[in-house]
Amino acid sequence: MRRILAAALFLLAGAQPASAGLLLLFAGPSSSPGVVGPDLPNTNIPVASVLADTDDVHEPAANTDAVITYAAVGGMQHVIGGIGWSYSAGPGLDDTITVEDGAGNIVFRQYVTAGGPGSIFFDPAKRGSTGRAMIVTLTAAGAGVTGKVSILNHWVTFP
User: Fold this and answer.
1) Domain match, 81 and 10 both
2) What is the pLDDT of residue 39?
3) In the chain, what's the furthest Cα-to-Cα distance?
4) Which of 17, 56, 66, 83 could form a disulfide bond with 149, CB atoms 3.0-4.6 angstroms apart?
5) Percentages (nearest 5) of helix, strand, coil residues in the chain
6) 116 in a domain, yes or no?
7) How many Å apart are CA 24 and CA 125, to the nearest integer?
8) Is 44 among the domain residues?
9) Where are the beta strands (DSSP E) in the chain?
């Protein structure tokens, strides 16, 4: 608790970390996300928002898998808080939304059974393994059907 209070006072006083702009998201001991920077080691300040990023959306041509890949980051873990998707028409019988922790390591898979929008929120957020890519795929739904996938909240954290 003292670290949180010290970090909050540090930020409220208008102090800037040594490398301004280099604040990384961090999951502290309570597993709630927070921030850490060069002058704020091991703090656990809750994240109020995450910067919007065009890498969080994929809108391919019809009958093409919609895939978002977050490349592996050495010593770090990818975290996602939710996934949104949509199909322009009804999908086939075996169309899915999948999360992989590194290629081929499926950690979440769900059938998508209707066209239009859908979403799922992970509480707690889904965290990948250290140093692995995270891949989210909405399968192609057939000729003339366009699928879109969006990550609703993504960040990188220390293990």
Assistant:
1) no
2) 45
3) 58
4) 66
5) 10, 40, 50
6) yes
7) 17
8) no
9) 24-27, 33-36, 57-58, 66-70, 77-87, 96-101, 106-111, 116-127, 134-138, 147-157
Q: Give how far the C-alpha of residue 60 lies from the chain's centroid of Cα atoms, to the nearest Å.
A: 19
Q: Please, which residues have CB within 8 angstroms of residue 100's CB and are 6 or more apart in sequence?
A: 106, 107, 133, 134, 135, 136, 137
- Cβ of 139: how many Cβ atoms within 10 Å? 20
Predicted pLDDT of residue 52: 83
Which token pair is 158? 């220390």
Q: How far apart are CA 52 and CA 151, in angstroms?
A: 10
Query: What is the pTM (predicted TM-score) of this model?
Result: 0.71
Its domain, for residue 10, covers 2-36
DSSP assignment of 100-111 equals EESTT-EEEEEE
Cα 34 → chain centroid: 14
Q: How far apart, in whole angstroms, are the C-alpha atoms of residue 9 and residue 12?
A: 5
Rg of the chain taking only CA atoms, in angstroms: 18
| pLDDT for 110 | 97
Answer whether residue 43 is part of any domain: no
What residues in the chain have per-residue pLDDT under 70?
A: 1-48
